[in-house]
Design a protein that fits this description.
The protein has 152 residues and is of the alpha+beta class. It contains five helices and seven strands. It has a five-stranded mixed beta sheet with strand order 1-3-2-5-4. A two-stranded antiparallel ribbon has the order 6-7. Strand 2 (58-63) and strand 3 form a beta hairpin.
């Protein structure tokens, strides 16, 4: 398994399962992989392809705290899986997207339209309504994930 996949799997596990948060924004995931692996050009498309290839179950939902789409794990407050549209192991609500999502390519295009510049400008996190490089919590989470991966 590549270091980028190991990193985002552990990062999502830490943030979404252990800290019980809704999820991480796509700029946060892609930016965090770029910062913490040798995959310096990691993209939205790379992430979606990796998730599908790994059959890693993930839910894209709207996070009310930051008013952005986030990628997370199913929680007890989410609707049942059969409520959501899905592509492989990626679940989402049609209402979260302007255009119809038919496959990974159309999902990647929608997310790139919304978040590509955030990633290229290295604004990976949203804090107090503004996009920033990283939050202190992100940096602490990166440290925790990297420590765990060193101990594997």
């Amino acid at each position: 398994m590549s270091e980028s996949i190991l990193f985002w799997k552990e990062y999502i596990k830490l943030y979404c399962l252990e800290k019980e948060q809704t999820g991480l924004s796509i700029p946060n995931i892609v930016g965090s992989v770029r910062l913490n692996s040798s995959s310096k050009n990691y993209s939205i498309s790379d992430f979606l392809t990796d998730v599908a290839n790994e059959n890693f179950e993930i839910l894209i939902s709207e996070c009310p705290d930051i008013n952005e789409l986030v990628f997370g794990k199913f929680k007890n407050w989410d609707a049942p899986k059969n409520y959501y549209q899905h592509i492989n192991s990626i679940y989402f609500s049609k209402s979260n997207f302007r255009n119809e999502i038919l496959d990974l390519k159309s999902l990647a295009k929608e997310l790139e339209n919304q978040y590509y510049l955030r990633i290229e400008n290295q604004t990976y996190s949203k804090e107090n309504g503004s996009w920033v490089y990283l939050t202190l919590e992100d940096e602490q989470n990166h440290f925790t994930v990297n420590q765990r991966l060193k101990n594997l």
